[in-house]
Amino acid sequence: QVQLQESGPGLVKPSETLSLTCTVSGGSINNYYWSWIRQPPGKGLEWIGYIYYSGSTNYSPSLKSRVTISVDTSRNQFSLKLNSVTAADTAVYYCARFGNKGAAAWGQGTLVTVSS
Amino acid sequence: DILMTQTPLSLSVTPGQPASISCKSSQSLLHSDGKTYLYWYLQKPGQSPQLLIYEVSNRFSGVPDRFSGSGSGTDFTLKISRVEAEDVGVYYCMQSIQLPLTFGGGTKVEIK
Asked: Tens of pLDDT along A68-99?
């Protein structure tokens, strides 16, 4: 059964870059869409973007100017970079695998706090 | 962006009683391929969201049959035939017919 695990700093300073990695185990990164989704404390879910295993990407228009998602198929990992962060970017960040049945696998989530 | 509107915001249910959550989309979720791209997720307290229903009415693997989804076009419903204690959490609908993917605001289900 596929498992996803987010990793990265839990604290980022304002104006700096948030960087997270999602490691996929128990299955190949090939042939799926891999997404980042975030959830501000006490709020709902927001889709950030996705990357196909081949490297094609699509981002939320509201974050597009600040987001980069990349994939490393040799390591079965994909990554998120969000630059110029502010307190509004404080959230639990989830990675998820999208297939033909929707997002059937999610990571446990990692809280990233933006604060000086 | 497609706006997903869920009602009610919260629901308090006696165990064994039914529950129903509505989700309305600002545009039709029916694709030209004949599929309707509406999904339901449950986020249990302290956990990641988990997939319950895909394409309106298909239960994901391992999801109890007390969960059912219905609807078409822009109006959708998730029903729990007999709520159990383990069903507490926040339910979200999501559309994937058009990018960006968008979620409903969530419906919190509690047990009386």
From this structure: 999 999 999 999 999 999 999 999 999 999 98
- Total Cβ atoms within 10 A of residue B48: 20
Minimum distance, in Å, between the CA of residue A83 and any CA atom of chain B: 20
Across the interface, do A44 and B104 touch by the CB < 8 Å criterion? yes
Tokens describing residue B71: 């609807």
Give the pair of three-digit tokens for residue B100.
Answer: 């960006």
Task: Give per-residue pLDDT as tens, A22-67.
Answer: 999 999 898 899 999 999 999 999 999 999 999 999 999 999 999 9
Alpha carbons B104 and A19: distance in angstroms, whole number = 27
**Residue A101 contacts B where some CB pair is shorter than 8 Å:** yes
Look-up: residue for tokens 């959708």? B76
